[in-house]
Automatic annotation (TrEMBL), chains A, B:
GO molecular function: catalytic activity; FAD binding
Species for this entry: Roseococcus suduntuyensis
Source taxonomy: Bacteria, Pseudomonadati, Pseudomonadota, Alphaproteobacteria, Acetobacterales
Cofactor dependence: FAD
Keyword Flavoprotein on entry: yes
Pfam families: FAD-oxidase_C, FAD_binding_4
Name this protein carries in UniProt: FAD/FMN-containing dehydrogenase
Amino acid sequence: MPDDLHALSPLDALRAILGPAGLLTAPEDLAPYLSDWRGLYTGEAMALLRPASTEEVSACVALCAKHGIAIIPQGGNTSMVGGATPESRPGQVILSLARMNRVREVDALDMTMTVEAGLVLTRAQEVAAEHGCLFPLSLGAEGSAMIGGLLSTNAGGNTTVRYGNARELMLGLEVVLPDGGIIHGLRRLRKDNTGYALRHLFVGAEGTLGIITAAVLRLFPAPRETVTALCAVPSEDAALSLFRRFRAADEGAVRAFEYMSGTGMGMVFATIEGTALPLSNPVNHYVLVDLTASREGAGLRTLAETVLEAALIEGEIEDAILAESEAQRASLWRLREEHPEAQKRTGANVKNDVSVPVSHVPEMIRRCSEALREMIPGSRPVPFGHLGDGNIHMNLVQPEGMEPSAFLARSHDIMDCVNAIVRDLGGSFSAEHGVGRLKTDMMEEWRGGAELAAMRAIKAALDPRGIMNPGKVLPGG
Amino acid sequence: MPDDLHALSPLDALRAILGPAGLLTAPEDLAPYLSDWRGLYTGEAMALLRPASTEEVSACVALCAKHGIAIIPQGGNTSMVGGATPESRPGQVILSLARMNRVREVDALDMTMTVEAGLVLTRAQEVAAEHGCLFPLSLGAEGSAMIGGLLSTNAGGNTTVRYGNARELMLGLEVVLPDGGIIHGLRRLRKDNTGYALRHLFVGAEGTLGIITAAVLRLFPAPRETVTALCAVPSEDAALSLFRRFRAADEGAVRAFEYMSGTGMGMVFATIEGTALPLSNPVNHYVLVDLTASREGAGLRTLAETVLEAALIEGEIEDAILAESEAQRASLWRLREEHPEAQKRTGANVKNDVSVPVSHVPEMIRRCSEALREMIPGSRPVPFGHLGDGNIHMNLVQPEGMEPSAFLARSHDIMDCVNAIVRDLGGSFSAEHGVGRLKTDMMEEWRGGAELAAMRAIKAALDPRGIMNPGKVLPGG
């Protein structure tokens, strides 16, 4: 990298850095980075920066800071809320972390793993498994999503109920600040109270305060037993009671507890090849539960059978199947994981990633479903997701025969309708997807006053020129 | 509270607020608030504010902000590092949270509890237990320490290995900012990604960024089984191996895993009435392990016996005793909990609350003990504490017959000696006690550069007049 960068013009200086680092300039090469995978957002950028080391990230950021060039950090570009794609404004660049994908260290005794921001989640899971450990974060986009983005958005997914969000799986961070300074915080410590917890500020900041370049992740002993059950339940309340029953039986064993509606399951069977209901009769409510234990001979199958038997007697379940093999387990999970694709194939749909206190999930599902059906007759509510942590994807699929664009024109009405009920129940308008571009206009109403003022003060303090991921998280940012 | 406060002089305005709220002015009443319990720090304050509600805290802070009066927030005043006592400078007040001690809400189904900052930890534990739940935070000062201070210092204690620090037990916070603004963040949500995680910034900030007035805490199912074992082990390495053996047997069951040296145990037996070694022969290294499970019939005793038998065969333990009753369990734990008192009774001592990656604990103990003995011949290293999370109290007791003041004059040499080794092993100079006044001069060396600059920028952004707990955490703050 040349030493006299600061003497060059902005674009020449960028070229001097980016040339050797693999700059892509042809518009056709930049295209995949300019739009999100849902096709909701497209913006512009004058270049793509592809640094391969922390020092290169630092040099890129310092140069951009000097010239007031805005930076959009990008990992696997799997954001649900347009958090990783540029807006349409001039003088900005995308900085991809994809080349920073090394595993720097795995310590199977300490149960920690130090990895770079560009490592794909499935690869992180594999590396942990190769060392006899578990990295428990698990979600739909895991084949593309990268560690830096997962931390920057505090990703959740299926295992939050047992292991917490991405935040709880992180011990230390390396971060490049908006002035190019580097925070060397890759500490492998369970306890470290030495000043403000900066790492927790960057987790969930969606790249607006700096760029996470590497992280120390927590590992866990690999499970020795796994039991998976699909249950047909008579109501949303019964689903909640069943969760409590499993939690009371063995709090630490509940790895995942997912709710699915009969509507959503019907869409899966109708649109996804090779899927079918493995129970006798279709019902309106289903639960998928995963139990795991690291203890040998934990007897989870007996535990599950005991719990399900008691639930059957109490009328909390109508039918259930326990997976008899890894293949059957995968096919049960496929019913859950194909929900987004099935909705997409069924028609235009609007996603609501909301959360409420766990006890309010049944009421939230009922009230939102009724209100949405009333608002758009014939529309199909498809609530599904993480009942065990209170996070339900309260999605709505268009009525049959309606013009998709006419339905999507109601997107904000639909979100407002759901959000009003969620707010009434003490919930949040974004549980695990973050704010990105999609939800910045909700921040004032939900987080306004002292809270938003403090966020703005922190943003101004760490990024006074506003060059880090502009337009994301903060309204008017 | 009068409406025209802003027309009064600072002290008159304070009197107007504080009079009705129970201001103490007589110096003899203020005295207990001016010094820490260790007697290391004494400062001054012109008044003690005792607000009983969030609104009163807000009014007090707004008034102080207007007049540039510095505020020292104080809970149970159990800081080990002088974090809750005032410095000797004029124009400042202590704000006690002791009157804000209500339990606002307990939800045993959602497993959350909303409490005010002045609630004492043992009371929080009791309230959780009354609802059939567990609030797992547990540490020596639990009979005095208050929730606000425990969160402000991100307290650790014995159960971090299983449940995490105070940070991980917190879902939401209510905070009064340095301008008197209130963050209403008492959300009872497991997932909520809506902007910067401000709550994590106030946890561990030691009252320098605002005052935590209330918190939503996580609860857990009460354990149905508890097994406690005291083990004599041949070396520090054997203690670590035993930890790994228990963790591999059942990761979720290890509630606490504490190391104690023969030296420290000897001091307990010699100075604490009613204590004795419940094993055949004294050795140089001991481990106290607690296993718990919320599952009925978890069979933890069998598990413990199996693990200990295997460890005996491998030479990792020399002897062990399993508690046969709650009384015996308490007496085993007493041997651990009396360590600080026994050291105090033995002579002057210097405390080092340090952490390293768990795998480095044996090397840290050995190297520090040797270096300290060499530095001060006859001095007695007393390492003890939380091996399972890498946090050892690497304390040093004076040589017999040495003048205590002469020994204490070496305090900084002793800390420097330990810290150099800890740093070499990738550790931290403050694991769970925080920075307070004692360790601000270590911040520049350990967290200097971009990290400390970012902390300073955040402090300046949220507390531009520097009125919140001056002199704590940040050097020169």
